[in-house]
Amino acid sequence: MARSRLFVSLLKKLFPSRFMLARLTRMPGFRELIDKMLFDGDHLFYLPKDRVIQMNMKVEPPESMVLPSKVVEYFIQKARYHWIMNFCICRESTKCQDYPRDLGCLFLGEAALNINPAFGRRVSKEEALEHVRKCRDAGLVHLIGRNKLDTVWLGTGPGEKLLTICNCCPCCCLWLVLPTLHESIGNKVKKMPGVEVKVEEKCIGCGKCVDICFVEAIAIENGRAVIKDTCRGCGRCAEICPV
Prior knowledge:
Helices cover 32% and strands 16% of the residues. The protein has 243 residues and is of the alpha+beta class. It has two domains: 5-195, no CATH class; 197-243, Alpha-Beta Plaits (2-Layer Sandwich).
């Protein structure tokens, strides 16, 4: 059943407690319960911005190269139902000062029709495409996939009929809890297949990438950045790198 305004207002107040909930996943018993309730069946991928993908060529990329934005646009074109939220639950809950709070998630699929209309609206494919373009222009990174949490807090379903396209900022995103979550749950959020993040020879070891990495996947060793296997390929480090 679609959630009420009161329910969502309470959820916003409880949002800061997500880190405590994440810590509980490291305790046997709690881990299985929380996984079943909130993360069961999740498959999520971070899509870096097109402009941080280095082609290493001056000509147009080959047809076989699929840019991240095209992945999002593909699903939008294929979907029959499109729903834009009026707000981002993460940025609203933390009162974000750096990124637009009104650029919310885009939901695709029949289950989106069960969302309380007070929280958003059904839109056309063209409006959905324009929405994700606005999000990219605002500096937000897409996270796409099946996300059980959305079916829970929105009171919609079934989950297999809802595809989430989150538009994440580096300061408020729910998935800042990834380093705290037990890895069996955290590993459900993955790097886009085909994306590889490398440290270039000209790295000066300034540490800016360490500070921006929300999954704590970068360290400075012997004066150079080292990227761990836990990298989700969001591309924030490539954007902030001064060299």
